[in-house]
């Protein structure tokens, strides 16, 4: 009797939001951060729908891709996203990524610049060695709602009121079989001891598409100074009284800047 192996899925799970307008060009691909999932982009997708079609992916080891065959650092996720774009026959896209998803978006653009129309990076990983490694390791394995609430508060600006459901939902997702262990493995792959692996910032600046970077001054995960002194061709937008979760804290501004970056493409 032959053992049957589960079929490899052709693409990552995603949520698609159609545009209200016709012929809107390349879609916007939204890539979440470490420990998140595609649902963090819900408000952004709604706002983009006026002018752009969008797809928000669950990355390997997250959301409904918890059982993706290989989960690891940004390079591993970039391979999975690229495979998914191929499977969906999306030859040219706009990329927008948050935190780890920002590093994933940047790597895809570096490897295949011809298929990326624009690059919008929200508090992206890989722009400097500093990272709050203790917070991320604790966040990866937290399973109790109260502990999750305390941890999540550090991802946001000091004045942001954390929605009550957020910690409960995140804790429930960690309690899924294998979820915490997978995220712990991914965290170990992202973090090299006490620092993170870095991206070639000058090469990102030399990419042929428009590049925007959004960051909050109260980011306690990745310090805002990693956005300082970027090459002049990179449009850098720094927001006062905003933490690491830029797209959740200032969705209107985030939508505006993504649309601005995609307008000419």
UniProtKB/TrEMBL annotation:
It holds the Pfam family Abhydrolase_1. Residues 27-249 form the AB hydrolase-1 domain. InterPro entries: AB_hydrolase_1, AB_hydrolase_fold, AB_hydrolase_sf. The keyword Iron does not apply. Residues 1-23 are annotated as: Disordered. Keywords: Pyruvate. It comes from the Bacteria. This is Pyruvate dehydrogenase E2 component (Dihydrolipoamide acetyltransferase).
